[in-house]
Amino acid sequence: MARRKKVYEGKAKILYEGPEPGTLIQYFKDDTAPTATEAKPAAVEGKGVLNNRLSEFFMTGLNSIGVPTHFIRRLNMREQLVRMAEIIPLEVVVRNFAAGEISERLGIPEGTPLPRPIVEYYYKDDRLSSPMVSEEHIIAFGWATQQDLDDIIALSLRVNDFLSGVMMGVGIRLADFRIEVGRIWEGDFMRLIVADEISPDSCRLWDLRGLADRGDGAPIPEPGPLADVYSELARRLGVMPSNVTHTTKPTLIN
After folding, report:
1. Residue 240's pLDDT band (boundaries 50, 70, 90)?
2. pTM
3. Residue ranges making up the domain that contains 42
4. Using CB atoms within 10 A as the burial measure, which of 97, 126, 220, 235 is most buried?
């Protein structure tokens, strides 16, 4: 088999040239994002297989309700065929509950419901640790137009509605998530699509099961992070691959 040409390699995925013009093959790695104490990403065995299935599930669902994505089809356990897109250099973050950076930045207690979903932008540059930017920065530096930003907000909120509903249906709260958005051209017409992936790597998920009032007057605990997030989410959504089960969940490789 001819050696495939690598187009890009990131923390969690590798992109190769696709079999047809305008396509790419997206390969899911087991690596996780490095922490402040790690020189390189850690590896979680089986994570790439599960993220491939989960991203397929979410992207297919979005396509079915008219939210355009780059996803075409899954090829095997770790790879999927996607459309090539010009990626806008922004991470688009949608927040439903205060957590992480917004709690630290604004002093809002973690878990506080936000008055409405908040959309934030972060400039994609690992050398700068992806700083938060405003619409003024985005337009001034030519990363996107005002019309692009209006369309990105509309796209992001539709993704939020879909993901929140799916997660709530399996007892999970979607605190926040991030997506990347790309441009594709169909003749002279340009449109924006959801690109990259949607998986536990890009979502903050809290487990709601077991929080119902137990009837004994005991305080109801606050939602906590979903345990074994990759395998548990795949199990609840019914997309667990046949060779990865809850008993053989992803494990950290030291």
Report:
1. confident
2. 0.87
3. 6-83
4. 97
